[in-house]
Structure formats: structure tokens, C-alpha cells
Design goal:
Chain lengths: ~400, ~400
Amino acid sequence: VQLPTKATHRQTREHNTRLVLRTLSEAGRVSRADIARRTRLTRTTVSDVVAGLMDVGLVEEVGRGPSSGGKAPILLRIPPDARHVIGLDLGEGAFAGALVDLRGDVRREIRVPLEGRDGEEALTVVHDLVAKLMRTATSPLLGIGVGTPGIVDTRSGTIRWAVNLDWQDLPLARLLTERHGLPAVVANDSRAAALAAYTFAPGSRGRDLVAIKVGRGVGAGIVLRGELLLGDGSSAGEIGHVRVVEDGRRCRCGNVGCLETIASAAGIVAVAGQLAARTPGCTLARAADAGTLDLDQVRAAWAADDPAATTAVLEAGRALGRVIAGLEGVLDIHRIVLHGSVTAFGARWLEAVRAEAHGHTLPTRGNGVEISLVDLDADLVLLGASAMLMTSQLGMGLAR
Amino acid sequence: VQLPTKATHRQTREHNTRLVLRTLSEAGRVSRADIARRTRLTRTTVSDVVAGLMDVGLVEEVGRGPSSGGKAPILLRIPPDARHVIGLDLGEGAFAGALVDLRGDVRREIRVPLEGRDGEEALTVVHDLVAKLMRTATSPLLGIGVGTPGIVDTRSGTIRWAVNLDWQDLPLARLLTERHGLPAVVANDSRAAALAAYTFAPGSRGRDLVAIKVGRGVGAGIVLRGELLLGDGSSAGEIGHVRVVEDGRRCRCGNVGCLETIASAAGIVAVAGQLAARTPGCTLARAADAGTLDLDQVRAAWAADDPAATTAVLEAGRALGRVIAGLEGVLDIHRIVLHGSVTAFGARWLEAVRAEAHGHTLPTRGNGVEISLVDLDADLVLLGASAMLMTSQLGMGLAR
């Protein structure tokens, strides 16, 4: 199809601008000539695009680089505060929001406990959080990036189904844009976190990875060739609902025996409670009976070598390990990182995951797979969601 | 890093040539101006590259297209016989080789029964097959594309491990190039077939797919964003070794209970034989006892509603379905196609696969997944391997 000449020119211009920004965000400080080499654009085109970006403050000159014979070239960079992004993590029990700069540094963060609110009330919390952050912004805002549990159609910004928040077919991106006048991107939390782990976890940049969130739910984000895998139905990485027990307990999804019924925080609490009930009088049994058993109590019991807690946690690790083996059989990605509240069970739980994953993998490659905890003191969901917004608006990842 | 100017120019030239060829192979007949628009290269560059390609016979002019006002543009295409490729399928029981044109049409095919040969002897069969095809070639040969069972490091062209052929760390690509003076590409058969299914299966072009070969072994090829997923350890898609039975039979890989022990041709034969042994005297039991039971006999028994064959085949289908559900949980690719000798069990087997896959998938998306047999009377492995060779040499897929 032949496009009208004008549209073609505008599209080419936008394409080139995004290409230049991506190159700058990946390379840090580079000269115009370097950008031309990396992008295969002509020097004239690069100078043109750079001039446009300098006009809007997205590029600045920062001195001269080493000379390769002739005159030392002027270096360019993206000023981190040229724009800020509002990042949201609609997490377990609390929503977090932050102003994030173009380098991925959190400049201000707010947490609001949910206290059981869901549906419309939870949506109000989101709007209030955004409004509060907008009032304190010190740089022009690029938009809103949201990470949320549930099945999310990222292409349309719609939350198909987030069972804990009682949201169904909620067009959150559109609602945020209408209310606050900013572009918005909405992604599943596990996926957003995977993107952040890819960018920030030491030694991982440029290597494909699977980041698995093991918390209230269990979900994976898969980064292949530097890009998030979305899936035809927007649910790639939904490993929490792979069946691991043929006659297992009913899952909130409607099926039985899903990985989440055993390996998630709620699954561990339920299994530990059931097991403890066989030895009435023990602390866990009493709490389970009263319906107050929670993950912290199971963690305390686990630390004290309580048998019910030990069995529940190790079986949780093994079930996760088996599903990781299946995932490895499909993807053959050697870097798997785990995060989320369940990872607090630490080394013994991790060993159970690893042993089972390796034992169920082709002997010729089991050893190549590296399963580790994310060693980062940062809100991966919030950072990943911010990065997705930057990519959608500027065509670039975080400018590290 | 600043490359020497000359190398940069040569690389740019090669990059542009591949870009133009890819555009031509995807678009069929196009004008120079169209190529410029699609590739974002300047018209001068395109004319330059096209002139070079016409010199070596890879592009020809084929009349004029519709005018959009001015002079009707000259259309270009890749002549299908400009080059031929030798494609090999080192299949089960027989090796097949063919001369394939640039459109993917098989121009001449030879099949050589293996008759139990493996190791060095099987390698000799490969060399003889190539030599015979080279003698009958009527177009310049571009190279050799090989699809083989086993774990293959496609980047280096080495077969890491092909148990039935008794090949281990065999640098087949290098050996073929040394002997025959042609570039060679070696890929796992399931993957090569997936690429061919992506190109040839009706309605699938441009849609991600998983193609699962269910024959002597069970393996998947995954096409994501138009590209084969290879995996960090070159074994993406090796789903045959996902454990499906905790205390199952020993697999040839060394583990126990792998999908292959139940769902492959050999697995079905073994399970049917075991079950039949419980009713001594029946045909299957006698054949199993004599060690002569094969897939054809099980197929005949299945057609006659023999209980042992029925149970073995349906359980094979269900086990495959469960692994497909796990794969869906990870990839969320909605198009799954099955091929290989086991698919001959037909509709009832396929129904068992589908029912189990859907029953183990998130209720919200089970229905979106389409599992079907490849409806093509072609050697997918051979065609896919040829396509990979074309991509490596010319940067283009098959010119459909």
C-alpha cells in the first residue's frame, strides 16, 4: 500500500527520533557521528533529529569526548530529569506510587495501605495516588506506568481480570488518561518486574531471563531478545495456573490443583494450616482454626522447624521447581530470577526449588540453568511499569 | 567502538543487500520505489543494490506494475531457479534429500532407508546423498540445510547428541562444507519443521506458532515474532523430556517418566505391549513378547478397538495435552500444530490431546487455543532446513 507522502515523512521522522533516543539511552554519552554509525542514519538526519530533541530538552551537550585524530566530538546525553514518569505498583495489601526519572531513579515514593478496599474504592485510591504525585512533580511528566496483578491486555491498557481487586474488564489506561490528561500504560506486575530485573539486576543486561513473582499469586515475566513476551491472549507467563496436583484443591481460577494452590503465599498458608490441624493444640493449628493464620506466622514456625510449616514450604518449593523444569523444557532460558514475598523463606526453600527443577530437566543441560533470588532493594514492578511507559512514549528504555 | 571505515561500508552494503532480498521475498513483485519505502533506504541505494543483485542473477525485472499517476514502475522479483538449496531430513528409519528452489518447491527428492546404520555409517549415507544431489543440480547451489533429530547447536552446526543415530558432538556443518565446498546449516528437526509450518501452513503466515513433532521423539519448534526460538543451550522446545509420571519408566535421556516414554511412537508401542501382556494370547501380547511389536501393529489394533492399544494411545494423547497446557501457560501462543508419525492415530487421539490441554489451562483463555494437525503433504523438516540455509546465506526466507 502506498501511503500519502506526508504521512510517510512524519512516520519516518518519528521512527528516526525514537531510534536516536534509544541509542542515547543505551549508549549513555555519544557523539552525533557515533549515533549515525549505530543507527545507520545519515549525519544530516541525526543532526536534525538531535536539534529537535534539544529544543524540547530531551538531549543536552555534555562536553567533548576523546578525539580520534580530528577535532574532539561533542558528546550528547539524555538529562535524567528532562521528564519524570509516575510509576504505580498495585501490590498486595498496599498500592505504591513514585516519581521516577529517566534513569530509573525513584525521586519520591508514596505507599497507601489498601485495608481491604477493592472495586471502585480501590480505583479511587489509584486516582488519589496519581493526583498527589502530580502535585509534587518537579519535572514535566511523561505519563503513568502501572503494574497490577491479574490478566492485563497491555495493548489496550485493560485489566481483564484481577481477582483480588475485584476488577474485571477495567479500561484503566483510558480512565487514567481521561482523568489526569497523561498517557498511561498498564501491565501485569510479573511482567513489569521482569523488565526491571532485565534492566537492573547485576549481570543480566542483554541476557534473556525469566523473572518469577512468588507472592500472593505466582506469575512469570519472560524477556526474550530484550523484549517482553506478551502472548496472543496477553497472558504469557501465567504459570500460576499450571496444574501440579491431579486431585488438588480448587483454585480461585476455577480449576483444581493449580501451582498457586500450593506455591503462592496463600497456598503455603492453607497447606500449613491443613497439616497443622492434624496436631491440634500447636500454634499454627490454633491460628488456622481461628482463620488468622498468615504468612508471617508460617515464616516464624518455619524458622523454628515446625513440621507442618516445613512440609508446606518445601512442597511449595518443589512444586515451583517442577513448573520451572517444564518452563525450561519450552524456553531453554538459563537465567531465572525469583522475587516476591515467598522468597523470604530463603536458602532452604530455594534449594528445594533448584533440586526439583534440575532433577526434572534434561541431564545434558540441567546444570546450565541458574535459579537465583533477585538481589535488589527496589520495587521492580513500579520501575518496570515506568520503563514500559518510557518505551511507549519515547521508544527508549531506562537511560542507565 | 569505531570500526575502520572500509569494514563499515562493506557491512552496510551487505546489510542493505539482505534487507532488499528479504523485502523482495516477502512482497513478491515490487518496484524499486516500493523497496525504498519499505526498507527506508534511499532510492539511489536501492537501485545500486538491485543492480548488483541483477548482475548475479538474484533479481530480474518482470514487466510494469500499475501506475499511480506517473510512469508505471518496473517490477522486480527473485527468479525461483536463481539458486537451489540441498535440503536434508535425517528422519526416522530413512534419510531424505532434495533440491529445493528459492520458492520452496521440491525439484527432485531422494530417500535412502537407513536399515539400522548409525555413527560413521550414517554419516556416509549423508555424504552420498549430498553428492548424488549435487551431480543432478541444474541451478547454482546455495548450500546445504540439514534437519536432524537430537540436540543441535545451530550456531556452530554441531549435533550435540542424537541418540538414535549414535552421534555425539558431531560438527556436521563443518564436515559437509569441507567435503562438498558448500555452506551448511544444521538444525533440530522439530525446529526446522516449525519454520516450514510457519511459512507454508494455510493461514499461519505472520502468526506465532508452536509446531510439535510427535514421532520417534517428541519435540517442539517455537516461532516467535517470525523467528525460531533457539534457547540459551540450543534446546528450546525439548518438551519430550518434561516429566509427566513421577515414577515412570526410564527414558533414553537418563531421567524417568519423561513425556517421550508415554507419548512418542516408541512410548506408545511400549505401553501398549505392557498392557497387552496382561491378556496373554492376544495379537499385541504375542508381538510384544517376540519383540516385534511396532507402531503399525498398534495402529491396526487401535482401529479394531483393542483395549490395550486404546488405553495406550489415549493416555499418550492426554500426556501430550498436559504438557501443551504447561507450554501454553508459559507462551500463550494460540496456534499449535502437530505433525509426525503419531498424528496418524487421528481424530480420537487429537480429541484426547485437546481435552486435556484445555482442561489444564486457565478457564479465561482455554478456548482461544487452537490445536490442529498440519495439513500439508510435504516434508516440513526438509523445507524448513532449506529455508534456514536461505536465511543464513541471503537474509531471506522462502520467496512465496
